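Good day; I would like, with your permission, to put a structural problem before you. What I wish to show you is a protein chain and, alongside it, a tokenised description of its three-dimensional fold. Please examine both parts with care and let me know of anything in them that strikes you as inconsistent. Thank you for your consideration; the sequence and its tokens are set out here:

***
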Amino acid sequence: MTDKKTVEAYHEALEQNPGHTASIDQGVATFRQTFADLTREDLAGRIGELYADTFYFNDTVHIARKRSELVDYMARTGESLEQNRVEVHKVIHDGADVYLRWEMTFITRAVGKRVESHSIGMTHLRFDENGQIVLHQDFWDSASAIYAHLPMVGFFVRRAQRAMQ
């Protein structure tokens, strides 16, 4: 579930980052290469090159606006994964707005337990004139993909999901 402050931050980011259409294809290609495997050793450098100096990033787990913060976050994420794959299945352009439909699989360990996750999602991107990301908003069910696999927390997540069906 998204809270009101997060929604407001997204709308503010839409206003502050109108995006450009000139380098969308270049930006999408770089995004695909960068996010295809988050376990790559050069991930931090790739993230640093993919995002503009000023941007908005929200993957439903973490919000970042500073490149150094995002680089650290993504490096930690990549290091925590044993395997990872993100496949972009569809790219939709609407002016400066780009929407990517994707599937992500990953294997990690949580509290000594091997966790395999498979999820689907959408990402809303906007790029600057250089093909760097100025807006990145993910739409996916991180509760099912991550938290439902954790001891204790997962019990309550799965229970709430069953109650809503």
User: Anything to note?
Assistant: DSSP finds six helices and six strands in the chain. The CA atoms of residues 158 and 164 lie 10 Å apart. The two ends are 16 Å apart (CA to CA).
